[in-house]
């Protein structure tokens, strides 16, 4: 495809949710997730097994400095070695360790907030980008607005297992709507996707990077959603979606000279919450083993006020 | 009380869990929380209402520089203002915002890891503190070891409401075992505490700081657990406990010249997970209204590798 | 004075240096400092005594979180305690310590860059502020452009000693042009100020904060230059000026409802380099003792690319 | 060479300066630099031309995450774009830009402090490493102790030009004492090295990395001083030395399984100040052109309290 601008314009016009939940809305597709969905989701806890879907936050992550994104730098303010040596000046044998972190908010497992991406200077719900995200952060749709909302039914679509070799899709593989439906069909009834669901798409790339390293840059070639899935993402009325890749959509993108065109449609126009760099491997193993691809999922972002994205430790319970 | 060293020694000896889950254990009291407890916990979702128990992470927090702890500094790498002005160099009208944070891992709503506190150079399970937490972080019991475990039944003990005026305990109020039991009795059957539970003790201090500001330092006077609750914390076999205060235990501490003596017993000796600065106010309102003080609680820390504490966005669902 | 907007407009019109050094100029008043001035400046080294004019960079500094400015947070990546204990994994008895810092670039002794302040959306030399400083930093007049320029003749005007009690001006004291001239006269011939000089104005406030602490905020009341000195700053053709205070000009400012009006004239319109929070006390003692108020001064900012201000360790040698 | 431990032991014994300046000394070889040397150094200013010897501090630097060292992350708190758009809330048309940085203190042009390296748990002057550098930083020889000292005569030894092809030594080239003497001889009388001098050794590697990039890691192969220069470094009584490379000494090191053995001798035993990643190229061009290799050099580190190394913007004036 050679004209991303046109394709984006057409998709945005067709699938826009602007105004759907009122002019003041800051939640976008999270509006689809209601108490009723939570009640149904909690009923999916049958065996009581829990899975963290977060990657570890450390220097082994995928960031290589692009646009000033580094891996998290974790340093200690106090240590056990100091405590043991008696350096700390506390009374009665008390010793402590303490630490700090400096990190991009989207360095590892994370949610994109609705202020993360703009289309021609417009943010979610038609607002001017400059009215929303200034140097002081997102003053309207900051990630803290989603702090208590993202808990409901999760569905794993293990595209890597359904469509790939050895459970992995190759880099550059564009997952189309047909592929998603094929995955659902292959997995069976527990992976039906509907209103208010939180959909997790596993490509298997993370398993590969774990084995082979991230290479020169995580934003390089990767499997991911095709631009053409915008309609499916809209029509299914899902509340949110996450992948095990750096960038959610296929890399390189499907247009010449493009940068994340699907983001440009689904974040500002659909108001869709996107998760990236989730670790779905252990959950996928379990789902493959018991044939159940739905579960209770809690994934509240750390509410950094005004953030346009934030770390999250998503917990799936089956 | 004037001899914290003796009191700590006696409590540590009496309530130690060292070896209880094997020499290699890194989970401490989280071992009490089993799949069975998760199944029971999830069954508490009846109305589908969710509550984030995280404070906002921003410059309005309680840190004032003590021991190099600041409030989180959130800065933007890209903004909507830039996107709108066309400064960013992306193709086809794409615009983005991105951000970073620098923060102490225990600056706001958080879990203490088992490597956070030592007693006379000993860490959880009897390990030498210097073998556990070096300048590279906690190499044994880092917070990432708890990433997928903390999801189960939560119980709110609203001591502020049960014992205080207008829902708040005064600063310096030591919550004793009798107070905890009195709170449970006042609240009724849904607040019974037992093995594997995650107990949330609300003092009301956070509501006060919200109204009056944090003052010169959050480590100042505050209500909190009495040193004497160590036995209750041990005998109930709870998996974890959290408060709405900076420091969990009463401030000033109950001994002359002491520093967090209850920490010194319950972290290294019980292996107890402690949460601090949780925002329990909205949940407490709801519990007071419907009389149900138990709920499904998910509270996985952000798994910063080797961290001795970490931010968490705990989600309670009723 | 009640109309800062008018006063700023008039001063800007009268003292503007826009275009003086060409349309492409990025150096502003540093253009006044030529090799000839350096040759003369070096001749002032007579006794070989050197003075660092930098405050210490640590948590005892003046920042209290205003506009996300904290004191510098310095943390260790490796320590001597670890090295001694043999935790580090290096061969042949090698041990190391290493460290990081997170800090506002203007948290302590610093230069304001020319991109630091704007007047009605205009930056130095008439450029649009949005063309100069984006989220990627100052792309035109970043502090790195001054990296090798600031070395020349320094002159200390010890207004605290000349005009104050016990060497200190009271907070709120506005230093006028007459005061500057009075100080020069009192100090004698070595403090004549002319083209290309780097002028250091000591108020004595730092000595006071050292004794009494910074209080609730360093941006509070302080002695400093009067708005009326804009003409002197322009006509003397000095290359740069620095004070021992947080904000260079008098605080509170001399207009109702104003914020740093002198900055608004001298940075964007004169192109003047301003230093703040310099520690002039030891140098001032020496100057008072030997009666010589001129010296060789080197004060190159740390060249953080695109920074609008930067830390500096100015070294005066007499 | 196969036994670094023995070689280090022998060199340390032979060249130790422990006790030379008293038991309490914290300045090491900076003691050699006296007021007399400053007077002589300032006399070298003849043409008034100044050179910053600092690399730019930005994401293009050499750090790739080894031991948690990243390049500096510079972010904006306020921008000109915001000011122009009127987002900032200041009165009378005032606008501002402000910024922060998070960086390892040794990420770019820098001084190693005396607490940076230990030999078998011993720091400079024979102190126990654990008594010197804890998690709170270097409590004895922190870089702030050198804040006002490093101003004197600088000498450039352009080994790259004297010994290499096209002004560059190849990676892995060990510069021996003979090479240093050969360079001095080739350059002529202005490069004689003696007591109190600050010696700058240019290898030319920086010019190469500027042309070809830093590659996978700056700690990789590089020209640098041979282990055998320890005697020369001691006997010349120089005050400090700096190179244009990441690690001062030749990489790979000259022993099997070694890590920076020359550091292990000269920092803790000689008390020698070492500068790394200095940009000597422009100065070297000038020295080659006029044949004068001596100059007035000011290089005070940013005095981060307790730091074991710190950024510096060294200024040479000829």
From TrEMBL, chains A, B, C, D:
Under the heading Pfam families, the entry gives: Cyclase
Which residues are the signal sequence here?
A: none
Q: Which positions, given as ranges, span the membrane?
A: none
Q: What is this protein called?
A: Kynurenine formamidase
High-level lineage: Bacteria, Bacillati, Actinomycetota, Actinomycetes, Micromonosporales
């Amino acid at each position: 495809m050679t004209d991303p601008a046109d394709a984006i314009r057409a998709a945005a016009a067709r699938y826009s949710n602007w105004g759907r939940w009122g002019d003041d809305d800051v939640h976008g597709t999270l509006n689809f997730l209601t108490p009723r969905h939570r009640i149904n989701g909690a009923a999916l806890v049958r065996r009581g097994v829990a899975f963290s879907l977060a990657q570890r936050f450390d220097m082994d992550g995928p960031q290589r400095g692009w646009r000033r994104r580094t891996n998290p730098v974790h340093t200690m303010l106090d240590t056990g070695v100091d405590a043991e040596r008696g350096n700390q000046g506390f009374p009665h044998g008390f010793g402590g360790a303490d630490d700090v972190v400096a990190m991009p908010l989207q360095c590892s497992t994370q949610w994109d907030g609705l202020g993360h991406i703009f289309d021609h200077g417009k943010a979610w719900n038609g607002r001017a980008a400059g009215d929303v995200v200034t140097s002081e952060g997102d003053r309207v749709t900051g990630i803290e607005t989603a702090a208590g909302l993202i808990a409901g039914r999760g569905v794993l679509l293990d595209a890597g297992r359904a469509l790939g070799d050895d459970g992995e899709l190759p880099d550059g593989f564009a997952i189309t709507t047909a592929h998603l439906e094929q995955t659902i069909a292959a997995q069976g009834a527990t992976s039906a996707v509907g209103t208010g669901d939180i959909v997790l798409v596993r490509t298997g790339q993370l398993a590969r990077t774990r084995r082979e390293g991230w290479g020169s840059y995580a934003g390089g070639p990767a499997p991911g959603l095709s631009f053409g899935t915008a309609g499916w993402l809209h029509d299914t009325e899902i509340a949110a979606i996450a992948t095990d890749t750096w960038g959610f959509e296929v890399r390189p993108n499907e247009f010449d000279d493009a940068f994340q065109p699907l983001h440009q449609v689904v974040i500002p126009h659909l108001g869709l919450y996107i998760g990236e760099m989730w670790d779905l491997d252990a959950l996928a193993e379990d789902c493959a083993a018991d044939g159940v691809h739905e579960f209770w999922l809690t994934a509240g972002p750390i509410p950094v006020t005004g953030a346009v994205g934030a770390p999250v430790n998503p917990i799936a319970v089956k």
